[in-house]
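Q: What structure does this chain adopt?
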Amino acid sequence: MLVMRSFLVLTYFFAAHALPPPSPVRCNDSGCTITNSYGVWGDRKDCAASAVVYPTTEEELRLAVAEAVKNQFKVKTVSGTSHTMPKFACPGYAGEKSMLISTAKLNNGIEVDAAAMTVIADAGVGLRDLIDSVEEEGLSLVASPYWDGVSLGGLISTGAHGSSWWGKGGAVHDHVVRINLVVAAGPSEGFAKVIELDKQSPIFNAAIVSLGLMGAISKVMLSLEPAFKRSITNYFKSDSQFEEIFTDHARQHEFADITWYPSQHVAVFRADDRVPINSSGDGRNDFLGFQPQNIVVSASVRASEKALESSRDIKGKCTMAAGVVAFKKLVANGLKNNKLIFTGYPVVGQQGKMQASGSCARSSSADILTTCAWDPRIKGLLFYETTAIFPASKFQDFIKDVKTLRNLKPENFCGVDLYNGFLIRFIKASEAYLGQPQDSVVVDFNYYRADDASIPRLNQDVWEEVEQMAFFKYAAKPHWAKNRNVAFMDVKNKYPNFDKFIALKEQLDPRNTFSSKESDALLNGTKELKSNGCALEGLCICSEDRHCSPEEGYFCRPGLVYREARVCRYIMSSVA
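A:
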């Protein structure tokens, strides 16, 4: 408990600069490898490429694509930080002809048109730089994800979102006015060309959430609005009926969300509303989990959680979870009234300071002793993130099932409350073919991942049952940039316009230059890879004990509430 409390205090009061994140691409004489910002993919296998290029302009990007097409290389675009968990950015493996195109240096162009209330920016521009540039011109970007350490092209490609059922909604792609793609072409057109797509184009609704499968995004134009501020108040309430009133909450507050801590029986309702630009307040959102964290303390917290896992100390996790939730309440989870500390609600500040955060990813020095908690160089946090997207009409029943499972043994849910509980957000219906066809509710939850793929987790069965309940009983859709592989099973049958997307993808890229075995597997519905231990990391759903870890006491059993689920449950005796 002392370690966790010290960690939180240091997190909250440390300086705002941190060790910059490592590059996801590493090269030597034999070629290049790519991973993500967490340092490990879902199957823990590195992806490889023959080469990587770093274009700085749209024309250089076109030439890079042309060179790959001419030489029949597979192409994948990767950002400077690579935050996707599934392997859509994986071009192939050692020995295969493939090229990575990094947008890390395609990040200089940001043009704000105040009269038209639009901004056009290069694909590699970071979200924080984009937001700040827009705000300097007296305008605001309405929608963005909560983490600002992503690139514009990456967040558009994967359907990234904030939270809103108002206006154009919380998904960033629904605020796109125009998008430029570099696509493959024939020899007469120089093997690659730039196409500009707007809402009148028949390709537009496929291109705005394209997963990098149609071409390489070079520029994106977004709509803006006159500058405004936001006012945020968090209300801590009993979770006894929150699934009954979530719709009212989302309709009453433009940027509403809910954080549910199931082991604590607490739901935090965020009343988050637009207020005039002349409203009093200079607040900001510096989310606790995205602040710079001391490297030594972060590693110590990870070591403490590993010790609790190995000793099967559920009570220890619950003690830590209670401390975490209490501290978050005390400091408003990183909201600050005057740029320094939290002094009370409401917290009012400019939209650009309130909508997204990520101070741990920004640095003015490379030798600072803080970084993001998940930085793979420090042996800090290693976690899974499950993100399920439900039609609003199905969300209530899902939460009721999760509550039934929770009520059997509430302490089994303490592990998720050590992170962020269940973060519940709202996305409006979209015309994007791989967007949400109806008003939807998004549920994110993070949970412990072992250092070694063969090591099962404490309460392994609980999170597998919740995961299967979401994606199979309620047919939730996975977030394209998150989730374990099992979440993508049958994903193509969950989108009414999926076939339209595939047809347009094949029209633009008939040679599948921008596809790979890994991205095809995810897009077409991940096939289970049945092998010993495959269920431990979501590569399969267990059907035999060997898919779990019988030698460690984990056996394949039905779910406790969702009986159709098949989960790896710890049983003290093998006679069961």
